Amino acid sequence: MKWNRYSIKTTTQAVDLISSALDDIGIEGIEIQDNVQLTQEEAKTMFVDFIPELPPDDGTAVVNFYIDSDEDDGTLVKKAEQEIKDLRMFVDIGEGTITRSETEDKDWINNWKQYWHTFTIGNLYIKPTWEEITEEMKGHPVLSIDPGTAFGTGSHETTRMVIKQLEKYVKKGDRILDVGCGSGILSVVALKYGAEYALGTDLDPNAIIASEENSVQNNITKEQFEVIEGNIIDDKNIKDRCGYECYDIVCANILADVLEPLSVNIHEHMKHGAYFITSGIINTKEDEVVNAFKKNSELEIVEINHDGEWVNVTARRK
């Protein structure tokens, strides 16, 4: 199928109004291109491992929309031109020009799947849900995940490092605390490695949904994995619900600025000899995190690992 793509050069200020106007006249599949950086709050609803750095925002944007070439008689484009003309009375549209190009698409919904395939981290196979388990995977832990609906897929360096540490330290029957669990991928992996129980905490209610979806996809029961919404750092109710001195491993793949206050009291939830496996630390923050860990006399750092510009710090409760 061939599609005519129309691109509107405009401003970031006008993007929402233009998108709404296009929707009102029956245009679907709107695509926005800009350099507006996501906030931490916005990122909570996005399915990404970390917030990417973008070029400076110059205030310009492009709104693309697509029309089936067989049905494109110019009517919708004329309506779009009129909507843009009307919007100029209320907002700075910028250029407001519409340019046309042609594109071919085989399957709008599933085309991206050709770029995402099974990969391994240590002895763990991470496969998309639409691929079958092969003979090669048998005898190995296998994580099935839908990258279209997950907060993290395991492909980011920080996630990879934590997974490698889980493979190294998880023992059969262990209890896991997953702070900032997101999609629950680390908890599910720990259970695949033989852990008996995992509890995840996250500030984002969407994490509950994502974790439950990934649990079902990987045949993990609610008795094995639970997720609660809340802040374990300063919410006494959440701390009490998590329990004290009862976990063999605590993992936290979160920002360095969160790991630092977390390191002050996280030992309260750990058994003596338990491991605290962390990442999400950019290398420019490594010294800060290491120093924060060292201030807690209950913790001793046992490993520091690097993958690209990212850092893993693993500590043990004395």
Q: What is Rg?
A: 24 Å
Number of strands: 14
Q: Helix- and strand-based class?
A: alpha/beta
**Strand order in the largest sheet:** 10-9-8-11-12-14-13
Family: Belongs to the methyltransferase superfamily. PrmA family.
GO cellular component, one term: ribosome
GO biological process, one term: methylation
Subcellular location: Cytoplasm
Topology:
Layout: E1 2-11, H1 15-24, E2 31-33, H2 40-43, E3 60-68, H3 75-87, E4 98-104, E5 119-121, E6 124-128, E7 142-145, H4 157-169, E8 175-179, H5 185-192, E9 197-202, H6 205-217, E10 225-229, H7 236-242, E11 247-253, H8 256-265, E12 270-282, H9 286-295, E13 299-307, E14 310-317
Parallel strand pairs: 6-7, 8-9, 8-11, 9-10, 11-12
Antiparallel strand pairs: 1-3, 1-4, 2-3, 5-6, 12-14, 13-14
Helix pairs in contact: 1-3, 8-9
Describe the structure.
- With 318 residues, the chain is α/β, with parallel strands linked by helices.
- It has helices spanning 15-24, 40-43, 75-87, 157-169, 185-192, 205-217, 236-242, 256-265, 286-295, and strands at 2-11, 31-33, 60-68, 98-104, 119-121, 124-128, 142-145, 175-179, 197-202, 225-229, 247-253, 270-282, 299-307, 310-317.
- The strands form 3 sheets. A 7-stranded mixed β-sheet has the order 10-9-8-11-12-14-13, sandwiched between helices. It has a 4-stranded antiparallel β-sheet with strand order 2-3-1-4, covered by helices on one side. It has a 3-stranded mixed β-sheet with strand order 5-6-7.
- Helix 1 runs antiparallel to helix 3.
- The longest helix is centred in the N-terminal third of the chain and has 13 residues, at 75-87.
- The model is unreliable at 44-50 (pLDDT under 50).
- It is found in: Cytoplasm.
- Methylates ribosomal protein L11.
- InterPro entries: Ribosomal_L11_MeTrfase_PrmA, Ribosomal_PrmA_MeTrfase, SAM-dependent_MTases_sf.
